[in-house]
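Quick one - first record:
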Amino acid sequence: MKSILAVLAAAAVANAHFTMQYIWNNGADGGHNNYIRIPPNNNPVTDVNSKDLTCNVNGLSGSNVQTTTIPAGATITFEWHQHDQRTGEDPISGGHKGPVQVYIAKAPSTAASFDGQGAVWTKIYSSGLLNPSSQQWATDVVNTNSGKHSVTIPSSLPAGEYLLRAEIIALHVAQSYPGAQFYIGCAQVKISGGGSANPPKISIPGTYKASDPGITVNIYNNLQSYTAPGGSVWSG
């Protein structure tokens, strides 16, 4: 029965892909596709070794993308949708169950010229399986909240330009690899104020492995716990 449910889920959501389309700065809507490195389509990344895992397809440069200024300690909200508009449908499709994560990386110079390669990323948010009894996932909360999830930017981060990387991992066909679907959006921001923290850093790609239990996993087998890839959240 579990395998049948998995097949039906995969078929039902095969075309229900999505992208990050808005960022909000302390409650202010930044506008459609502003400050975001826009991929060519809404397809997911499935190869954990691909550079597309960093900031999605064609996401290694943001030369044509504006950079928005945010204060240290700001609340940034990311908003996702299946299609290129706010249509009222499920923003990311109810069948796409999985974790929601946010990383940040400081650019050596400008965010627009930063490719995000190497050990530069710090995880500042992660939410996964919220209720094993009801099998409620972080993605369910995003759908309930009209495609939105928020993170507080640690106030101890130094001032400067950064990439903000939001990630949703859809696990509906993740029983074998490649199966997990990585939906990635990178925004370009300039942090004002801030402190002098030097947080722990990982590489994306580089840290994620096909064998990670948060990447290759059967979510239709009465899953009671979930460990997202990428290690622990740094709170600042």
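second record:
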Amino acid sequence: MKLFAVLIFANQPGQQAVPLLSAWDLNSFSWMQRGTVQDMMAFMAKTVSERTQPTQRQSIQENTFTAHVHMRPAVDGVSGVLVSDSEYPVRVAYSLLNKLLEEFLMKVPKSSWQAQAAQIAASGAIPSKGEGIVRTSEFPFAQDYLARYQDPRQADTILRVQQELDDTKIVLHNTIDSVLQRGEDLDKLVEKSGSLSQQSKMFYKSARKVYSCCGIM
């Protein structure tokens, strides 16, 4: 079981999701792969966060990765995405996201990022690789959570105090295509993306072909 990334986005209806902060653990990949893998995970996280409704939680598998998305109520204007392998427990993933978003909203005032996020969303100049507009020094807990809960047994404490999450339906999807809006095509979204390098687009196409042939996607 492995956690690769956690990202928090600013989300406003009808606008692109804007990365507020992110934390990464890509040590299981070779140094030559890490940049490309980070590109694709950040793109996946942004895509699914934009297609998740307020208060909804859904998990989307793509290739060998799973993106767990937790959208806060519309008034909060944020979502969290945890990227893991397919073996990481879903319940633990959402407990982690819920706790992380609660702390973020308490410790980082909305007034400190809302205007800048709206400006970035309007311009379309979304930072690549999930790079956020909130400095790590303002909220260092994302990296701490990512490290602490690599072992899901470490989540026992927050699981005991957040039983209400069990009563909220989690929507599970086999691939990212299932969360796209009618008429959208993932291949075209990837090709048009300004945040993906040409190398990352080639990596995506290669992986898509391999997993399609193997019947996983």
